[in-house]
Amino acid sequence: MATARSTHTTLAFAAVTTLFFAWGFITALVDPLVAAVKGIFTLTNLQAQASAFAFFFAYFVVSLPAAALVSRLKAVPSILLALCTMAVACLIMLTAANLANYWLVLLGLFVLASGITVLQVAANPLAAALGDPKGSHFRLVLSQTFNSFGTFLAPLLGAHLFLKGVEVKSGAVVDPAVRAEALAGIDTAYLWICGLILALALFFFLSRRVVGDAAPKPATTSGLLDAFSSRWAMFGALGIFLYVGAEVSIGTQMALFLNDNSIWGQSDAAFGVPILGTLMGSDGVHGVSLQEAGKAVAFYWGGAMVGRALGSLLLTRVRADKLLALFTVIAAAMCLYVVAVGGVTAGFVALSIGLFNSIMFPVIFTLTLERSGASEEATSGLLCTAIVGGALLPLLVGKVADLHGYAFALIVPALCYVVLCGFAIAAGRAKPVRAGGGASLH
């Protein structure tokens, strides 16, 4: 009996881990989608970045209601509702692709991210709870590893499906056949995602008793607004806002940036780099096409995946505030190199920023929890709401790119990293009010 229950719990944990992979994959799929809609619908950078805005604005709108929902329904019913919402969103995306309607794309992305927000609120504590309590940290880190793997794979598949033959350079006109193929690629991607989501929903419905028994009691949202009375909670929210905004801005602009003639658009240098060149897959035409550039974006997110593993080791030997200060300085310097120097080398430098983004979210999160005078629940709720930076800052970066070019637009994330360095220094000087806040990975 115990063995059977253990098997069911293991299967339940595997399903929860698949959720982590799914939302990481879906989130990173926004990057090639931004480049695709820019060409398909002939948009400015600002208009194309509305895709990122629609997706990440859902975190701002839905985070607090999601916490209340999970508190009322508990984990498994909330997960089922979230998955059904995501399936509906995929159907909206399929309709958008078939009607070639950008407004429907934006609606689909907002609904999709709304479901993911509920999913994150419910699944994070569930991953830690499914099994022996002594292994809770290991299980959460393992689940987050699959989340990072999803963010690595999404640009590769998205570029393959969305960006073949798509042109976004000034004066370029997208061929109707290419446009139709790109829309068909969007249709295919979200059709398969819809199928995966429905399969997961069926599994969770069938195993609802096993998973439900292991689920922790959800935290209530009472006192959530208390976070606004804490200076450190507010400072940490600013940090999360700037970090997520910088990370998303760079990721969503990366394919367009690399494809630019001043970076890799007229160079084959990237194809000579082992692994990178292989995964980009040269089409035999001189220079890096938008599709090839879109595949290279996987290395931006792959750097974050590798950096998270290395950062976890470094954090056992280096104080978190010091490591955060070092990584933010390096990231700011890399952005400024791109702005000031540009050229082929700037492409490699920009891709490497992901390596130093890796530890920022969890470290900002935990440093804030340790210093906030508000409750952990209230502080966590405010920090999660601050993810809206991923909606707003890409719009600013898109506008700067329209006015001054893709390379100069990295001045915006550079300034974000400078402020984050200030946060790290201030955190190092401030005395924690509680022992180590629970780790939270983005």
Describe this structure in words.
The chain has about 450 residues and is mainly alpha-helical. It folds into two domains: about 1-220, MFS general substrate transporter like domains (Growth Hormone, Chain: A, Up-down Bundle), CATH 1.20.1250; about 225-440, Up-down Bundle (Growth Hormone, Chain: A). It has 18 helices and no strands. Helix 2 (about 30-40) runs antiparallel to helix 8 (about 175-205) and helix 13 (about 320-340) packs antiparallel against helix 18. It is globular. The two termini are about 35 Å apart.
Look at the structure and give the mean pLDDT.
86
What is the first-to-last residue Cα distance? 37 Å
CATH class descriptor name of the largest domain: Mainly Alpha
What is the CATH fold-level name of the largest domain? Growth Hormone, Chain: A
Number of strands: 0
Secondary-structure element pattern, one letter each: HHHHHHHHHHHHHHHHHH
Report strand %: under 5%
Organism: Sphingomonas trueperi
Protein name: FHS family L-fucose permease-like MFS transporter
Transmembrane segments: 12-30, 50-71, 78-97, 103-128, 140-163, 189-211, 232-258, 298-316, 323-340, 346-367, 379-397, 403-426
Subcellular location: Cell inner membrane
